[in-house]
Amino acid sequence: MAASPPRPQVAGPAIRIDSHLDGGQERSLADDVLDGLTRPFKELPPKHFYDARGAELFDRICELPEYYPTRAERAILEHCSPALAEITGAAELVELGSGTAAKTRVLLDALDAAGTLRRYVPFDVTETMVRESARELTSEYPGLRVHGVIGDFERHLDRVPAAEGPRIVAFLGGTIGNFPPGSRRRFLRQIARLLGAEDFLLMGTDLVKDPRVLEAAYDDSQGVTAEFNRNVLHVLNRELDADFDPEDFDHVALFDREHEWIEMRLRARRELTGTVRDLGLDVHFDAGEELRTEISAKFTPERLDGDLAAAGLEVAHWMTDPEDLFALTLSRRTDL
User: At 32, is the secondary structure helix, strand, or coil?
Assistant: First the structure.
């Protein structure tokens, strides 16, 4: 069936916002619940964390002393952005999962200072964030045009507008680690299709390190990550008329040494049955049974090279913070 055309909503001469959701987000949640909560080992994809409350909680997580990825990635951007602007000559920046565009401003500053910046394309599922960042950035950067895309980048990546010059496609925050290996390589191949001969992928990846450091980052002493994890149950209750009590579940974060990824889970404190009324679905949990809500893969240079090569990409520049906690890579297609 042909995709419906976007609904352009012009908020000003410098701003265009296209929405591609049209109820698809709700359908995606329902499909994921039907699939994930009827499996022998229950799981949900982490994209459903990020309603307004989830986004607010994640912003708090990024400020926690245990949660190093945001600080490390920002430090790399602050150190390397002038060089990135010089290397790429980018006229536009496409950001997948743009959120509030907080870290992105460092790169926008460098492109603006280099005199090449023309357009920013924020891509996010949260409409309010896309609209607010568009208004803020067009006021901060005279002459900047913003073409916002409201959608799910796993389903709507082909809706990114055609390039208007050399571009950087940014996928920051280590979000690529949320994909299992097979899905990760498929998604990287989709991103590669956005790149022309003059374009680059700028991607953030969390690196393998001491498991104690990793587990602390996902199970902080203030309990903010636990609240963030349990928030997905509030999403199910609100969007699908479910009746889960988040207080019936403990937050669990553990490092899987075989796969070298962190898992976040919700563990039932007692035997219970929750009902998802919109789906006519009863979901039974035994006491101690777990629901996996996130994996976050950690990378070595070799693993990252392999994933990129499978997508027809290769690393042009590798950048890390002084403690080698996190990496940014600039990659290009190998077939152009």
Answer: helix
Contacts of 298 (CB under 8 A, 6+ apart): 177, 206, 207, 208, 209, 214, 260, 261, 262
Q: Which residues pair with 24 in a beta bridge?
A: none
Q: How far is CA 211 from CA 72, 222, 242, 256, 298, in A?
A: 17, 19, 35, 9, 11
Q: What is the pTM of this model?
A: 0.90
| Number of other CB atoms surrounding residue 192 within 10 Å | 21
The per-residue pLDDT for range 82-106, each reduced to its tens digit, is 999 999 999 999 999 998 888 899 9
What pLDDT sits at residue 5?
46
Residue reference for tokens 């790169």: 107
Q: What angle is formed at CA 192 by the lines to CA 263 and CA 262, rounded to 5 degrees? A: 10
- Domains of the chain, with CATH numbers? 8-23+64-209+301-333 (3.40.50.150)
State pLDDT tens for residues 37-59.
999 999 999 989 988 899 899 99
